[in-house]
Specification:
- The complex is a heterodimer.
- Chain A is mostly beta strands.
- Chain A is about 15% helix and about 40% strand.
- Chain A is built from two helices and ten strands.
- Chain A is globular and about 40 Å long.
- The chains are: A mainly beta, B mainly beta.
- Chains A and B meet through β1, β2, α1, β4 and β6 of A and β1 and β2 of B.
- β2 of chain A pairs parallel with β1 of chain B, so a sheet runs across the interface.
C-alpha cells in the first residue's frame, strides 16, 4: 500500500514539541484539529483529507501489527496501513486515538481515545495540481 | 535544576499518516 507511518515514535511522546507550518510551536498533546488544517493550508502542496476507519483487524502479514482500513477523501479511496496498536491517529473533533490507548499511555504517556470504526482521522495527501 | 535546551522539534506533518489513494485516474 502506498502509505507510510512514522517508524520513529518519539514525536508522539507527551511533551514533544511540534512545529506547525505557521511556525508556531505546540506540545503534541495540545494539538487541535485546526492546527492540522491551518498547517496544510499554509504549506502549499499538501492537503488534509478525512480518512474514515472502516475496518480494524490483526495484520495477516505482520504479526503484532494492526491493519487499519480507511476510505480517504471525497473519492472514498481505499487505503490500508499496518501499524503497531499503540500508534496514535488524530481524529477530527476528538483528538488522539489509538487501537490500544493503554499501550499508547505506557509507551508515550499520551492520552488517547479508543480508535473505532467510523472515526474520521486526519491524513495528508499531495494536493492535485490541475 | 536542569533546563532542557536542546529539545527536538518535530514537523507537524510527521504526526499524521500520508494516505495516498491506491487508485488514480
Amino acid at each position: 500500500a502506498p502509505a507510510s507511518a512514522p517508524s520513529n515514535p518519539s514525536h508522539f511522546m507527551k511533551g514533544a514539541i511540534i512545529q506547525l507550518a505557521t511556525g508556531e510551536l505546540k506540545r503534541v498533546e495540545d494539538l487541535q484539529t485546526q492546527d492540522f488544517v491551518r498547517s496544510a493550508e499554509v504549506s502549499g502542496g499538501l492537503k488534509i483529507d478525512s480518512s474514515m476507519v472502516v475496518d480494524i483487524r490483526a495484520s495477516q502479514q505482520k504479526p503484532g501489527l494492526v491493519s487499519l482500513h480507511f476510505t480517504v477523501g471525497e473519492q472514498q479511496s481505499k487505503v490500508t496501513i499496518d501499524v503497531p496498536p499503540e500508534h496514535p491517529f488524530f481524529v477530527f473533533g476528538q483528538g488522539w486515538s489509538s487501537c490500544s490507548p493503554e499501550r499508547t499511555a505506557q509507551l508515550y504517556d499520551l492520552a488517547c481515545h479508543p480508535l473505532q470504526v467510523g472515526d474520521v482521522c486526519v491524513s495528508i495527501t499531495l494536493q492535485q495540481q490541475p | 535544576n536542569v533546563e532542557p535546551r536542546s529539545v527536538p522539534v518535530f514537523p507537524w506533518h510527521s504526526l499524521v499518516p500520508f494516505l495516498a489513494p491506491t487508485q488514480s485516474d
